[in-house]
Amino acid sequence: MESQLLSKKPKFNKLGKYYLVALCAIALSIILSQILIQKFISEQENDSRVINLSGRQRMLSQKISKCVLLLADTSYTSKDKSTLKELDGALEEWKEVHHLLQWGNNSLGEETQNSKRITALFSSIKQDYEIIVNATEEIVRLLKNDINTPKSKILKGTEIVISQEASFLKKMDQIVYQFDNEAKTRVMNLKNIEAFFLALSLGVILFEIFLFYSICQNHQKDI
Question: NarX-like N-terminal domain spans which residues (predicted)?
């Protein structure tokens, strides 16, 4: 009887080791899954912010076009001061958002890591952006020096802004779409990774059940 118990002891020791390894594997898969989920939540918050900024950038470009058209309109002079203020504010925000979308906010430690595709799209939009900025800044400069500047002097700048708007908006739409598409891809990748860890955990649990069942069967035969 004593010899039988001694012979079974190594089996139970081996079982304990298997059980410990299985628990460690399950714990590791849970920890890794949580790390990935937390990382994804952080990225998702950043994705939402970037997509919102991209949409805002599009809206601001339309606002700039509207303001320069109003300032160039000879029948619209009574609100030139308020329109100029609105244009100046929209231009500054437009430039700030353009910077944030490409490089993030260094002062807050928020660094943007854009894909090669998005970087290429921003390169393609650079010329349109700079032309609009330069023309709008010239209009703002003239009107800040003299709000009664003849409309003819800002007409050329207005035409430049309007002529570049369609091209800028088209490319900005591509950037917004690309940001959104990449965010959706990250969501899908996370789902696949979570499915893998779930399958791994279930596989370990099933292995444990099979192992215990086999040992119990052998134990009953020995008895």
Answer: 42-137
DSSP 8-state class, residue 106: G
The type of residue at 213 is Y
Distance between terminal CA atoms of the chain? 11
Classify domain 53-199 at the CATH topology level.
Four Helix Bundle (Hemerythrin (Met), subunit A) (1.20.120)
Instruction: Report which of 38, 42, 28, 19 is spatially closest to residue 196, judged by C-alpha positions.
Output: 28
Q: Alpha helices, DSSP H only, in the chain?
A: 2-72, 80-103, 116-145, 151-222
Contact 182, 174 (CB under 8 A): no
Q: Which two tokens stand for residue 215?
A: 């040992």
Q: Rounded to an integer, what distance in angstroms lies between the CA atom of residue 104 and that of residue 69?
A: 31
Strand partners of residue 129: none
Distance (Å, rounded) from C-alpha 10 to C-alpha 44? 50
* SS3 category, 104: strand
**Phi and psi at residue 213, to the nearest 5°:** -65, -45
CA–CA dist 92, 176 (Å, integer): 20
CB atoms near residue 212 (< 10 Å): 13
Q: pLDDT 10s digit of each residue in the chain, 223 long?
A: 444 444 445 555 666 676 677 777 777 777 877 777 777 666 666 777 888 888 889 899 999 999 999 999 888 777 889 999 999 999 999 999 999 898 876 554 556 678 899 999 999 999 999 999 999 999 999 999 999 999 899 999 999 999 999 999 999 999 989 988 888 888 888 788 778 877 877 777 787 777 777 766 665 555 5
